[in-house]
Amino acid sequence: MVYNSGVKLTYSPGKCLPFGATYTPHGVQFSIFSRHATAVYLQLFASAEDAQPAAEIKLDDHHKTGDVWHVLVHEAKPGQLYLYRVEGPYDPKHGHRFNPDIPLLDPYAKELAYPAEYDLQNARGYDYSRAEKDLVRGPGRDAANFPKCVVIDDDEFEWQGDRPLNYPLRFSVIYEAHVRGLSAHPSSQVKHPGTYRGIIEMIPHLKELGITSLELLPVQEFDTNEYDRVNPETGERLTNYWGYSTLGFFAPKASYASDPSPGAAVYEFKEMVRELHKAGIEVILDVVYNHTGEGNEMGPTINFRGLDNSVYYMLDDNRRYYKNYSGCGNTLNCNHPVVRSLIQDSLHYWVTEMHVDGFRFDLGSILGRDQRGNLMENPPILERIAEDPVLRHTKIIAEAWDAAGAYQVGWFPGGRWAEWNDRYRDDVRKFWRGDYGMARQLATRMTGSSDLYLRDGRKPFHSINFITSHDGFTLRDLVSYNAKHNTANGEDNRDGHNHNISFNYGTEGPSDNERIRQVRLQQQKNYMATLLLSIGTPMLLAGDEIGRTQHGNNNAYCQDNELSWTDYRLCKEYGELHRFVQGLIAFRKRHPSFLRPEFYTGTDGAFNGLPDISWFEPSGEPLNWETVNDCLAFRLDGSHAEIHADRDDNDFFVMANASRRAVAFQVAPAIEGKHWYRAIDTALPESECFPEPGSEPPIDADGVYPVRAKSMVVLIAR
C-alpha cells in the first residue's frame, strides 16, 4: 500500500490491547472496540486539512479479536493523523446507527488536530433533508472539516522527576478556574493568554494567594462551536466555553495550547502540570463521564454513536431515543463493562501519563445508574474507582446529583468519595443574608456537616465546602443582584438558576452609594471567613478574591469573553478583599484547629477539661438550639486539634452576627494564664480587621465584645 506520495506501508494484525493508538518500536498499534460492526477501516491522513485519507486499511477477520479490531502499521510514527470508518446496520429503532460514509474519532485518541475551519455539528449520520430525519441513513461526507486523531508518544516528555503531589484533602484549599478564563484577559499581561502556558505564567498569582490545588473546568476535548446562537446584545456567536460536552476522554483540549501543531497540546498540558507541581500546586480536573457531545437522536455522529451506539449509550425502550439523565440529550451507559473500562482507562491515563492529582465528576450520580437508568446501591464503576489501586491517593470528588432528580449529597455510594456540598453553600448563604433561624444550620456546616457524613464513616474533609462555583453567581454578584441577568446567553433569560439566595442591599448591580459598597465588601469577607474557618475542604471560585463580576449572569457557559475572564485590574479596586483572603488562607494553614480530620464530639479535653467545642448565646450562656436565630458563638479548644502530635493549637472564640444590629457578646473566659486577642473582625477597616500574627490587640478586660451588624469576629488565646 502506498502512502503520502510514495511511502509504502506495511502492516500486520498486531495486538488487541491496549485500545487507541500506541507507539511501539515496531510501528503504531491501532485498536478499537465495536461489537456490532461488520467492517472497520483505518484511515491515515497527511494533514489536518485533508478531505481524503492518504491511505486506508480495511481490517478483516485477521485483525479482529472478540469485539476488538486492531492493526499494527509499521511505518507510522508519533504525529500520524488518523480516523476510522465503520460498517454495520443503520437501524435506529433497534439502537444501531452505523454509517460507513462518515469519518469517526477514536474514543481513545490522545490528541486531536483541527483544520482551520471545522464543523462537527453537521457530521450527521442520517439524512436531515428527509421527513423521517434520523430514521434514514445520511449521505457520506469527507474529512475536510473534521478533526483528526493524533498518534502520541508519551515517553517523549521529560518530567524531571515530577510525580502527583496528592495532598491529603484536609490540607487542601481548592481554586476552581477555567484554563482560558485564568489568563485570557489582557490585564493578565501574559505572553500566552488563555492557554496551558498562560496558567504557568499565572503561578505567581496563585502562589501569592496561597491555594494548594487548582481545579480546572473541563480540558478533555469538546466542540467549542457546538452552539449556533448569537449574543442578542452584541451579535457575536456564542460558544461552548465551559466544555461540558466531552468528545475525547483522553485528549487535552487542543485549542488551549499556544502551539497549534500536532502533539503540542499534550506537551503543553504536561508542562503546565510539571510547573504547577514545582510551585507546590496540585491539578484537579473537572471530568464529564456522564454524557458526550453527540447530543440526542438528532445530534451529530462523531465517535461513540457511529462505533456502537447501543453499547455506549443508555437507550429508551424505543431504542431510537436516548435516556437523558444529563439534561444534555444523552447518557453514557457508565455501568456497561465496556464503558466502565473506558472510564477507568481514561482516569489511569490522566494520572499515570499526565500526572494529575484528582478529579471532580460532573453529575456523578449518573455513574451510579444501571443500564436501564435505575440508581444502584453498590454501583460497579463508583466502587471500582474508589478501590482502584492506581487511583488510591488520587482525589475523587463527586457532584452528587444529576439532571433527572437524583440527589445523593451525604450518601454518595462507593466508599471514599468526597462530595460537592451544596447544602453548605445554601445554608451559609441563607445565614449571612439574614434568613430567619439559620444559625443552627450554620453551626452544622462550619463543623463539617456531620449530619451528612458522620453516619457512613466519612470525615469532615469529604465535604467540599463552597459558597460559589462556576455554575451560578460570582461572590461579588451574590451580594449585588437579587435576580439573574442572562439575556446575553440568547435564551431570553430562561436559563440559569432562579434560586440564588442572593441580596443586592438596595441597588441591583453596581452602586456608587458608599453604604451599599461597604456592606457588600463586608459580606464578601463574611462569606470568605466562614468558608476558610470551617472544617472540611474549602473551594474558592477563581476571581472571587478580587471581586470578579459577571454582571449578574449566573450561567456564563457560553461566554468566552471578558464576562467570564478574570480581570486583574480589580486587584487594585478590590485589593482589600484580596489581602483579606490571602490572610485567611494563611491563617487556616497555620492553625490545625481548622484542619481537623475528625468531627467534634463535645467531650472534655485531656489537658484542660474543656470540650473540643462549646456553643454560646451572645449573653455568654450555653446556646439554646431551639431558639437560636441569627447570632451564635463558639469556642474551640486547641488541645483537640489532632493534626500534629508534637504541638497543640491556640484556642479560638468565634462570633457571628447576621442581624442588622450590633450585638454585644459576652466572651467565655480564656483558660488560666491566657488572654483573648482580636485576630479577625470583618466590620473594621482594613488597617484593623486582620492584624499581623503576633500583633493582635487584646480585647477589653470585661470580656464584652461589640460585634457589629453583618460581621464575624475571631479571637485567639495567647
UniProtKB/TrEMBL annotation:
Gene3D superfamilies: Glycosidases (3.20.20.80), Golgi alpha-mannosidase II (2.60.40.1180), Immunoglobulins (2.60.40.10)
Domain of life per record: Bacteria
Record's protein name: Glycogen debranching enzyme GlgX
UniProt keyword list: Glycosidase, Hydrolase, Transit peptide
GO aspect biological process, one term: glycogen catabolic process
Record GO terms (molecular function): amylo-alpha-1,6-glucosidase activity
Protein family: Belongs to the glycosyl hydrolase 13 family.
Domain Glycosyl hydrolase family 13 catalytic as annotated: residue spans: 176-588
InterPro entries: GH (IPR017853), GH13_cat_dom (IPR006047), GlgX_Isoamylase_N_E_set (IPR044505), Glyco_hydro_13_N (IPR004193), Glyco_hydro_b (IPR013780), Glycogen_debranch_GlgX (IPR011837), Ig-like_fold (IPR013783), Ig_E-set (IPR014756)
Chain intervals for the UniProt region annotation (Disordered): 488-509
